[in-house]
Amino acid sequence: MTAPNKFDAIVVGAGPSGNACAYTMAKAGLKVLQIERGEYPGSKNVQGAILYADALERIIPDFREDAPLERHIVEQRMWMLDENSFVGTHFRSDDYNKPPYNRYTIIRAQFDKWFSSKVREAGALLICETTVKHLILDGDQVVGVQCDREAGDVYADVVVLADGVNSTLARKAGFHGDIQAGNVALAVKEILFMPEETIQARFNIGAEEGVVIEMMGKITDGMLGTGFLYTNKDSLTIGVGCMLSDFKSNPNKTSPYVLLEQMKRHPSIAPLIAGGEMKEYCAHLIPEGGFYAVPKVHGNGWMIAGDSGGFVNAAHREGSNLAMTTGRLAAETIIEAKAAGRPMTEATLKAYRARLDESFVMKDLHKYRDMPAVLHKNPQFFTTYPDLLARAAKTMITVDNVDKKTKQREVFRSFRQTRSLTGLVGDAFKLWRAFR
Ligand code: FAD
């Protein structure tokens, strides 16, 4: 029989990774305690936010019945912006209009609350407004956590750190080092309210349909980063994020807030958001170090899931997708070990790393392992090329008295003058290396 303050597992954090982990274990009958420092799950979380259905479906197959979903995505736009124009691609498919839908916009505060209600229904105990201060160790085995407030010391066979990108606990315990400014992005976002009908008319979508716009170029003021605009039911989410190291070294000392304000004034963006009433503004870090920045994620009595482990695939901005998947895989490892009566030692929990390696999580991180370094060392992809592309498009599309062959020559000349032939070939190779 287990003591009243002894659990099979303690999960720190009630974001997507913590909820996925706690839900999966509680559903399998484990005695689970989840501790969240926020007033309620979602109160401390910031997200754009796109929900990737597949990851959640593997945890709660019928989630569509009552999850607070905003719009399913039918169109993805990618824009490269210069000062006053953009060159872009739009992909829209009616296949995305057929259930089961693949991606949705969500409002994190509502979504996390809903997910947490499922965790509690499954039988886990959730304590909010409580911060885990330290891990309790017996030798080198983590045996519990020490909390502020009345929760005090609580014990478990295993502690899952799903405490987000800062993960002070893992750092204090020496499981990973300090956050490097070159491995995280600082993102800011706003939610702008406007009538549903206005959103649908501006984005050319129906009642339930949504659009995602991902942006790069002049909007990040020469820093490595991207912007985004998502359609919710009766609001838009707009945001921009750049590497923290770039904010520190930016010669213009552009603050994230100023960056967002400049982006909102861009002539291609301003008409889409005009009249929107700002109801929420938040800033948050995003892990961007990729494959090489993932620390050791298991040890004696502990595991790391979600942003705390740096699991964000820089190529696709799928943080919550990876968070839910890593949370589930951590839970499945614990469930299997428990069923086999194995102790929660490093040797047992290494099965977690094996599961991660087998999954898309590590495969994708590995595939794009060179991307963070390549993009960081080559700011021209975010500065020079958006300019060149916009200029080329304008030259070719503007109808004047100049023949097309002369225009084509002019475009090639502007590329060669700006980047030289070797520079262009080198950039193409670098891009191939980053995305191969
Ligand atoms: P979090 O969601 O950060 O949750 C960690 C939780 O732990 C928090 O609730 C926190 O309060 C709690 N906690 C921390 N320390 C303690 C402690 N000591 N004691 C108790 N509780 C603690 N991802 C997408 O998939 N799609 C998107 O569109 C998207 N857009 C984004 C836009 C922005 C601006 C940002 C910043 C991120 C975006 N992401 C997106 C990434 C996504 O938000 C994260 O990857 C995801 O939230 C990670 O989930 P998590 O559970 O690991 O961490």
Structural account:
- The chain is an alpha/beta fold and 436 residues long.
- It has 3 domains: 3-70 and 102-177 and 290-369, FAD/NAD(P)-binding domain; 182-287, 2-Layer Sandwich (D-Amino Acid Oxidase, Chain A, domain 2), CATH 3.30.9.90; 372-435.
- Helix content is 36%, strand content 25%.
- The chain is built from 15 helices and 17 strands.
- It has helices at 16-27, 53-57, 108-121, 168-172, 196-203, 244-249, 256-265, 270-273, 319-339, 346-358, 360-367, 371-377, 384-397, 404-419, 421-435; strands spanning 6-12, 32-35, 50-52, 72-81, 86-92, 103-105, 125-127, 132-138, 141-147, 153-161, 184-193, 209-217, 225-231, 235-243, 277-287, 298-299, 302-304.
- The strands form 3 sheets. Strands 1, 2, 7, 8, 9, 10, 16 and 17 form an 8-stranded mixed beta sheet that branches.
- Strand 4 (72-81) and strand 5 (86-92) form a beta hairpin.
- The protein is globular.
- It starts with 5 loop residues before the first strand and ends with a helix.
- The model has no long low-confidence stretch (mean pLDDT 92).
- The structure holds flavin-adenine dinucleotide (FAD).
